[in-house]
Amino acid sequence: MKRNLFNCYTLLAAAFLLAVAACRKSEDYRFSTPLAIDARIIRLGAAADTTRFIVYADGDWKLELTDEAPWLQLQTTSGHGKSDALVQVTDNSGQLPRAAKLVVKGGGKSDTIVLQQKGLTPALAITDETAQAIANGGTYKSGINTNVPLERMAISYGYDATGAVNWVSGLQVKDGYLFFKVDTNQLPVARTVMLRLSYLDALGTTTQDSMLIKQQPGMSYEGAVQKDFAYVKQSLANGVVNENIFVEGVVISDKGHPNIAQNLNKSTDKHSLDKTENSIAVYVQSPDGSNGLYFKTKTPGDNIFNFNDRVKIWLKGATVQQLQNPSRTIISGIDVIHIMKKDVGTGMLQPKEKYISALTDNDLYTYVKLKDVEISVPSGAFTNINEGYVARMDCYPTHIRDIQGSSLNMLTNLDVLYRRDGKRVPQGSGSITGVLVHEEYDRYGGDIGRYSIRHLKREDIALNEDRSNGFSNVLVEWSRFKTEYAATPTESQNPLTPDLGNGRIYQSGKKYLDFTTNGITPTTDYNGLLQEPTTNKGAVSNGGWGCKGWWNATANTGESWIIEVSTTGISSPVSLQVEGNRDIGGPRNFVAEWSVDNTTWNSLGNFTFQDVANWSNTLLTQVAGQKVLNFQLPQAASGQDKLYIRLRVANKNAGTTNAATGGTIAATATCRLSHVSVKYNK
Fold first, then answer.
1. Which of 19, 257, 483, 560 has a beta carbon 3.0–4.6 Å from 646's, enabling a disulfide?
2. pLDDT for residue 273
3. Pairwise CA distance, residues 225 & 235, whole Å
4. C-alpha angle 432/436/440, rounded to 5°?
5. What is the pTM of this model?
6. Confidence tier at 143 by pLDDT (50, 70, 90)
């Protein structure tokens, strides 16, 4: 029995040794090769990096780069036998993915490695699913979101069964738009082509999008008579146009631009916006720029108008709306059939230069450059709002004033990319170019002035960065609540010590240095500089100051914000700039007044402060920021030892949770300011 067991063990041991020997022979055979590598595709992240791979060879081998790739450096170019090869790549975070081929040679053989590096995620999205073109052809554009150069895209055209081909050409991607040219349609029927763009990146991923281009058949406008803009504005009645007439002009708006017109809150949901108005708005001025018309297309797809296009627009069948105070004309219902001709303008379109006081109703919907202007409250960004409300409101009116003392608002829709880019608004003076419009905004009191201006690019706001390069001198300015002085305020060091100059500001119903919880207290404004607004919504702690108790029940009169300054030695007129709002139940209606003896008061005008936005129930009359006002004082206010300016509560009217008016001032409701300044011309 023991012998049998011994024999079994002996046989098992022998089998084990044979198996080991077989494995060794297999290993020797498997790796005994003139040349081999352990990976044929190596993928690296976007950051600068070093990678290695293994080369198997019986003898010497060499590593070569077959593609021109300055971003890739071979740390190892040769070796012997089984050994590592080392490759280094530079950072590719801001570029599209890339790849290069490496070849290993040895023993009369070669093998290839593809080294890939990640980068930007390719983007390719055409804004319009369908683009309309008139029979006369011309140059067209659609918005495009892409980081891929056109020359790296694959382009294909799927023409329809009419048989006509190659009638779309001249593709170009520039400034966020895809431009293309369309030939004249000589066929009696409409025609279409499917334009497809695609990009195969270095990682093997395809990104693509397409757009259907439709072109109208030729249409006869026989008998149509050309009329000038004055005829349209003065002779056409409200309603549908039955006359066979057309106008010729120059387009000064831009299809797809986010800052063309006022978008409205949806009737079904006041917490969201319907952005149709901006996408269908077209401004056309007469060839000489003396008059302008506001056109509205039937659909966003019918808006094929580019800035500086020379156009002929047929008016028959369109609807005219004549409006007064100011006098202006809006023509709606325009579709592609109404566009008789559309040509790209040659040369740069020049605006007419004017001071604000020289503007007239004829300048509405024309291209203008306002001379010698500055931002009234030059702090923060072009849209100083609580960024949490971006989806609920559409536009911010930046108040501007000129060297002559006139003022209006510069309108910026919240889809404008540069509206809040981490840069402070310019503090000097210069010019602002854009389309002159009339718009009303309930969030800022409804009537924001007879005229406003809409810029089309950042360069339109051509103001000097520094105050030293402006027309204004600051006599006194307050722009924050200085909490460092709140504990023991003194005459010279208190939370409302001016940032510039000398003066006092206080509430009439409080003691001058009352900065307790019952007096003037710090508040937040939204004039912060930030590149990522959602981080803190633009909030600036202690950026403003507020006070309660705005109705004196004993005297049955409203309290006031009081500003005291000296204008001694100043010969030019002075002006006042304020920025403020109120809580629900706070004072709404104010009178601005001035005095030299604190007894006899002279009116500067009436104004309103709006309720600050309530998140759970945001009314269309509530503002997610503050309202800016400018008051020009008469010459008599200059050269005075003491000048008093007050913002007096006119009555007990206040807002409620359901309306801008109809309530009564609450003793616990705050009215706040975040900027007060008095300026004069140099």
1. 560
2. 93
3. 15
4. 115
5. 0.83
6. confident
